[in-house]
Amino acid sequence: NRFLIGFDWAHQNDERQRFDNLEGDIGPLSFYQDEIFSNLGVFAQNQYSVEDWTLDAGLRFDLNELKAVDQVLTNGDNSDKRTLNSLNPSIGLSYSPTGRVSYFVNVSTSF
């Protein structure tokens, strides 16, 4: 039997600016926002083997947050935030009658 637990975390922050183009010259700032993406994933996986058979089962939960922070407030605050969560199970069975051949079936979901 082999049991694993773990997590991963990712964070990205992009500063986006857009200017009006006036006959080839950079004009006034028309768009400026920070775009932020964060992800936290937590997972557990168990692998149980008996002779030539192996059963795999896993579960993963993802918490994703997307955020836009408006830096140009002359036309109102267009900031927004969205949270997307996902729970994804997986299960699989494999059979290896020899060291060269392996048969398997797996069912899972993903986000």
Kindly describe this structure.
Helices cover 0% and strands 78% of the residues. The chain is an all-beta fold and 111 residues long. The protein has a 5-stranded antiparallel β-sheet with strand order 1-2-3-4-5, with no helix packed on it. A hairpin with a 2-residue loop joins strand 1 and strand 2. It starts with a strand and ends with a strand. The mean pLDDT is 91.
Q: In terms of topology, how is this protein built?
A:
Layout: E1 2-22, E2 25-50, E3 53-70, E4 80-95, E5 103-108
Antiparallel strand pairs: 1-2, 2-3, 3-4, 4-5
Q: List how many beta strands DSSP finds.
A: 5
Q: Summarize the biggest pleated sheet.
A: 5 strands, antiparallel
- pLDDT averaged over residues: 91
Report low-confidence residues grouped into runs of 5 or more: none
CA distance, first residue to last residue: 27 Å
**Which assembly state applies to the chains in this document?**
single chain
Helix content: under 10%
What proportion of the residues form beta strands (DSSP E)?
A: over 45%
Summarize it.
The chain has no helices and 5 strands. It is an all-beta fold. It has a 5-stranded antiparallel sheet with strand order 1-2-3-4-5, with no helix packed on it.
